[in-house]
Fold this protein.
Amino acid sequence: MKMLRRALVALGIAGMVAAVLRMRGTGGTPPQEGGWRELSDSELT
Amino acid sequence: MRFAVLGLGAVGARLARQLVSTEGVERVVLREERRDRVVALGESLGDHAEVDLSRYDEPVDADVVILAGPAGTHVEAAAAFVRRGQPVVSVGDAVDDVRGLLDLDAEAAERGVTVVVGAGFAPGLTCVLARHAAGRFEAIDEIHVAKAGTGGPACARQHHAALARSALDWRDGGWVQRSGGSGRELCWFPDPVGGLDCYRAAMPDALLLVPAFPGVGRVTSRMAANRRDRLTARLPMLRPPHPEGGPGGVRVEVRGRRGAGRDVVVLGAMDRPAVAAGAVGALSALWLAGGRVSRPGASGLASLVDPVPFLAELRRRGVRAAVFQGDATERDVEQG
């Protein structure tokens, strides 16, 4: 019984750590310069 | 020209509206499992629209058949129409549908029929943008596609399911399956969408781009998702999807060689996904009916259309492509 409780606690902690790691942070930094512009007529003829 | 639109969700309804408002279109047959919806749409589209309460795969008198139904309905219907010698346009974005439609290539080619696969926002517009960007290179090394936003409820369900399924990437001459929801990367979409974290997901873009660009080394695709999407991806949707999502975007990054150097071109577009998908699907059907797509077999738009006039016509219909100028690439982050 004690072993089962420990296993469940360990699984719970592992799940929480995995969830935190999965959710936090971002995927990079935004571009430092530049931007979008619509394709011009000359690029579409 | 006569068309049949099978499936009248957010994309199919827009597509049908695009067709009936195009000069030279005599008739658009509308089929949809929801009787109330097809009748209401038929009344709103006017004289050129004809309501047909038959099943999707039953014979229909049309120059081009457009499949805009939910995921899982495209392959059998397309096979039936190919056997009858009718060209087909599918706007489906489910991996299984795209794979099944591409499997019709040999039969379609033998019968001299064209099947346009993935003629929506992503895939679809992404394929055309990739082809356009590729024109600036002598050889293509990598293509990376990202999309943000959803169209109607079926698209939202597909988005939700895709994040929980394996992604299909092309790497150094072979297919690689990666875990859905992994590979976070900040992708910068045209304004006002802006920067969004994107993740691997079950998207079919690579299936269409790899055959279109022989020799390409890497093709990947990602979709934008928020924290709730990722946390709940493997659960049923917690609340019903919106009738239609808000603004979305696509971004196509192409890396290649030009002369002695390597360069990157990033193209994109911003629109409501269902609106843009409807325009791309309608234009694909019009080009097919007008003989501007002549290659028989089943393939994506990157293999079938000249991107410059296609994008010019899309712009006339309100879907505008853009190019990123500046320090565009963040591909060094989170490649795991």
